[in-house]
Backbone:
């Protein structure tokens, strides 16, 4: 009974809170620019409207064009259920769950890229290529980051990995993971979620042809992914295990808000990078995580 | 139940298959089915039983008594051989039918059964001499299968390269088995870890078996042989034949004492193979060549697991080695299943369109829905994504590597880069298969060939469905297969013979099952919601352009451009570019070819040097007696000087 209650609460938490994040980012950007900006709940309205709309589908696309966004969404939700939420712990925790989480994110990426290619559009091809290619570097950075947490805590399960503080390498790890967060969620300086110039986008260009409920599912999935990375980053760096249940929940919320605001500030201050400079930045992220790993190794030795 | 009757039945059925293959296709197929099912029965009875099967006889073959053995390790490979051997036989009935290939189809059946039989012999024989005989028979029958379509010069060249490379490996194996026989005093094989003097022989075995397994940089023969062979042959070559190399390395690393550096070398080779193999795969435009390079990657993944296991053995049988070894052995099965499935899918596309170039295909899901769906399933599996089988074995290897890093022993310095390179190879595999699937099956047909494709028939579809079911099965219920894998790991290192699974495989299985159900439910619900809301068809959005053509689609080359560019230092692309000129350009060309770098940039130039040196040396031999007498005098004088000045003692 309690487990069912727990699962429902957890689902509600992920499903309902996620669309808040893009709203907060947009609000922060508006404040920095001195505008009023769209309401924080804008994405909820968008999702509700999209859910009721009919769908236009490319003449070239197969039914997988509609089904794959749902598959990607389930994969992202599955990954989210493995991530512990402060005092509540993870929905399911076992040895090696962190790798399952990484590969579920990859499954989401595969489905999005495949659905994009369904349309036969060169624009969507560009987006898919960028998405799957940059992922090679982010994946390396993620595994280095996870390794550093493993070395730090002697565990390969998310729940125990994320509880203690990240130690001396915390700043390196935070910087590396933050860059990965920006890249994986297609934020500035990797991608500009606000442009409508097909040539320069990554995620947005992959979903150009989607409409109606599938687009709603994609947008919601993207918001969940952003929340997942923010939660992961906050818990990896903050010493969650040191606080009591209420304090740690508050710390988690504050951490996620800080990360979200940080994304907004970065977007206000930076322009999008030229694509040829993106691999360089991602390599930097990888190196930061790698140094965090070395610091963790050294720290444990002494 | 003892495997003896099964093995006897398999032997009789396959041997009769060799005899009847040419004339009686139906009987042959029935015999192949009987033989492979019986071999499967034997393998399973050992894997899920408790005792190994061993048979010694007084019968002398080549002066040596027959000694056969089926233990956990050989049974794992025998099970794979029987699945792919049987599936390929069914597939060939339609793919390489007597109707289309009246000359080569009978030959193909004969060599197919001989190939399966000889690989079985390699797996069973426990005598160095018989192992070599089986090995040679297997190499030669594979050669005749690769060159089945011998009218094509590419097929002949590929077969020739395969034969030469294989024999370079066989020379190492001759040296290996002969030195082993000299040092132990017998050709008989078995566990001999107490002979510390045998350790250095491992390097010979690694080189010999490495060539067959296609590990980078010994893979030079593999891409062209797998690409040019008929697809059912590519499937067994990629799924099983290269695994014989892996079998050799696993077998003898288990039986012989290991040099201290073995683990480091194997894990290093594996990591390089995994990353570079998939980088080469990504760059290819020929989809069968792409699949072949992907095999190099997967052999690399297996080697990473095996290398970690070797490292663990030198560190006091650490438990993480068992995880890595189990992952490697499971990946042998997994790769066999999904690679055979992908090659069957590729064969079905080739059968329907007659081209292997992805830039001439596209939009095939419409005419070939079965092939498209099954290929997509194989693509998800080969990219190592949950909830299919590829993820399970990679996950086990990751667990081993992570535990090694957490253990903070010196071997962590091998495990750390290996884990990171494995992750990068995984992401590149995803890119590669997103590209392959998209170029072949999605979008609009790029040529008439693609537009006029047709779905494959029942005989080709059934083996694909069987392999797909195996992929799903291994992904959703890995715990069912654990006892078998665990038994093989125990045969490799008796210290690891325990039934308990060190990894939460049951949990993973349930998570996969739940995921699979949820994926399907969510997909169906969204589709129904879309139908309820109303669905219209429209042109693909191309910036408002109203008349898009198939040529405007992204191509294989452009898809690989970004990530492939990072590997240009090793891919060494050969480019031909003629830019459009003037206001109304008449023509423009951009061609890109990715050579097999190791072959064309290293082996061919070195071979050329050797040939030139030999040609120069031939000038010394011209038939003039006076000069020959001069050689003798000079030689004698040199010897005299050597004797005078060397050792006064």
Residues:
């Amino acid at each position: 009974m309690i487990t069912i209650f727990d699962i429902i609460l957890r689902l509600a938490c992920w499903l309902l809170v996620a669309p808040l994040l893009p709203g907060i980012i947009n609000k922060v950007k508006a404040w920095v620019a001195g505008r009023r900006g769209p309401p924080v709940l804008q994405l909820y309205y968008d999702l509700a409207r999209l859910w009721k709309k009919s769908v236009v589908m490319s003449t070239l696309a197969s039914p997988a064009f509609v089904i794959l966004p749902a598959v990607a969404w389930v994969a992202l939700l599955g990954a989210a259920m493995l991530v512990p939420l402060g005092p509540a712990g993870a929905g399911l925790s076992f040895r090696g769950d962190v790798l399952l989480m990484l590969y579920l994110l990859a499954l989401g990426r595969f489905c999005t890229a495949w659905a994009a290619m369904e349309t036969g559009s060169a624009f969507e091809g560009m987006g898919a290529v960028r998405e799957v290619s940059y992922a090679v570097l982010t994946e390396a950075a993620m595994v280095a980051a996870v390794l550093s947490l493993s070395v730090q805590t002697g565990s390969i399960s998310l729940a125990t990995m994320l509880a203690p503080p990240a130690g001396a390498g915390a700043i390196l790890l935070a910087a590396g993971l933050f860059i990965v967060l920006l890249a994986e969620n297609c934020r500035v300086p990797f991608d500009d979620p606000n442009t409508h110039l097909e040539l320069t986008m990554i995620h947005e260009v992959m979903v150009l042809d989607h409409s109606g409920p599938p687009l709603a599912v994609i947008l919601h999935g993207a918001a969940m992914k952003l929340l997942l990375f923010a939660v992961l980053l906050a818990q990896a760096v903050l010493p969650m295990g040191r606080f009591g249940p209420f304090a740690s929940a508050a710390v988690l919320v504050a951490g996620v808000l800080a990360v979200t605001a940080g994304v907004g500030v970065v977007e206000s201050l930076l322009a999008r990078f030229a694509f040829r400079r993106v691999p360089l930045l991602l390599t930097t992220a990888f190196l930061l995580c790698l140094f965090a790993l070395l610091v963790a190794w050294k720290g444990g030795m002494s | 139940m003892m495997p003896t009757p099964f093995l006897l039945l398999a032997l009789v059925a396959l041997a009769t298959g060799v005899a009847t293959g040419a004339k009686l296709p139906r009987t042959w197929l029935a015999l192949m089915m009987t033989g492979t099912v019986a071999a499967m029965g034997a393998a399973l009875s050992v894997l899920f039983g408790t005792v190994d099967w061993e048979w010694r006889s007084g019968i002398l073959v080549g002066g040596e008594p027959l000694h056969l053995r089926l233990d956990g390790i050989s049974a794992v490979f025998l099970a794979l051989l029987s699945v792919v051997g049987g599936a390929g036989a069914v597939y060939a009935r339609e793919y390489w039918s007597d109707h289309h290939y009246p000359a080569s189809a009978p030959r193909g059946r004969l060599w197919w059964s001989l190939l399966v039989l000889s690989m079985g012999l390699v797996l069973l024989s426990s005598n160095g001499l018989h192992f070599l005989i089986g090995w040679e028979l297997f190499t030669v029958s594979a050669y005749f299968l690769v060159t089945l379509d011998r009218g094509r010069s590419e097929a002949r060249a590929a077969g020739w390269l395969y034969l030469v490379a294989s024999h370079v490996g066989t020379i190492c194996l001759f040296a290996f088995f002969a030195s082993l026989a000299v040092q132990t005093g017998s050709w008989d094989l078995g566990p001999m870890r107490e002979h510390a003097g045998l350790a250095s022989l491992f390097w010979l075995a690694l080189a010999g078996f490495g060539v067959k397994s296609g590990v980078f940089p010994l893979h030079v023969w593999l891409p062209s042989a797998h690409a040019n062979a008929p697809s059912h042959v590519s499937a067994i070559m990629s799924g099983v034949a290269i695994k014989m190399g892996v079998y050799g390395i696993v077998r003898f690393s288990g039986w012989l004492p290991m040099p201290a550096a073995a683990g480091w070398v194997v894990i290093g080779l594996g990591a390089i193979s995994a990353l570079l193999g998939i980088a080469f795969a990504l760059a290819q435009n020929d989809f069968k060549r792409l699949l072949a390079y992907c095999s190099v990657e997967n052999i690399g993944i297996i080697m990473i697991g095996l290398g970690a296991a070797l490292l663990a053995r030198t560190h006091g049988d650490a438990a993480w080695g068992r995880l890595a070894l189990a992952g490697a052995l499971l990946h042998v099965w997994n790769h066999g299943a999904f690679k055979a499935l992908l090659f069957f899918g590729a064969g079905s596309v080739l059968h329907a369109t007659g081209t292997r170039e992805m830039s001439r295909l596209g939009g095939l899901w419409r005419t070939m829905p079965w092939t498209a769906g099954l290929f997509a399933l194989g693509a998800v599996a080969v990219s190592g994504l949950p909830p299919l089988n590829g993820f399970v074995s990679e996950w086990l290897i990751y667990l081993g590597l992570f535990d090694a890093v957490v253990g903070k022993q010196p071997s962590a310095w091998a495990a750390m880069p290996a884990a990171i390179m494995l992750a990068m190879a995984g992401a590149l595999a995803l890119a590669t298969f997103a590209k392959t699937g998209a170029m072949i099956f999605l979008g609009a047909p790029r040529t008439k060939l693609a537009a006029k494709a047709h779905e494959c028939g029942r005989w080709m579809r059934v083996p694909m469905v069987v392999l797909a079911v195996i992929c799903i099965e291994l992904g959703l219920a890995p715990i069912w297969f654990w006892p078998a894998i665990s038994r093989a790991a125990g045969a490799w290192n008796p210290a690891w013979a325990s039934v308990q699974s060190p990894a939460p495989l049951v949990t993973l299985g349930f998570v996969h099952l739940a995921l699979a159900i949820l994926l399907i439910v969510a997909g169906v619900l969204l589709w129904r919601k879309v139908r309820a809301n109303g669905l219209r068809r429209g042109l693909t959005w191309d910036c408002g352009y109203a008349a898009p053509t198939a040529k405007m689609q992204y191509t294989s080359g452009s898809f690989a451009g970004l990530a492939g560019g990072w590997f240009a230092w090793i891919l060494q692309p050969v480019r031909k570019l003629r830019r459009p000129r003037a206001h109304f350009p008449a023509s423009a060309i951009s061609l890109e070819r990715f050579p097999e770098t190791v072959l064309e940039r290293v082996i061919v130039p070195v071979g050329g040097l050797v040939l030139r040196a030999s040609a120069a040396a031939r000038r010394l031999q011209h038939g003039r007696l006076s000069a020959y007498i001069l050689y003798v005098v000079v030689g004698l004088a040199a010897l005299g000087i050597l004797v005078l000045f060397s050792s006064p003692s």
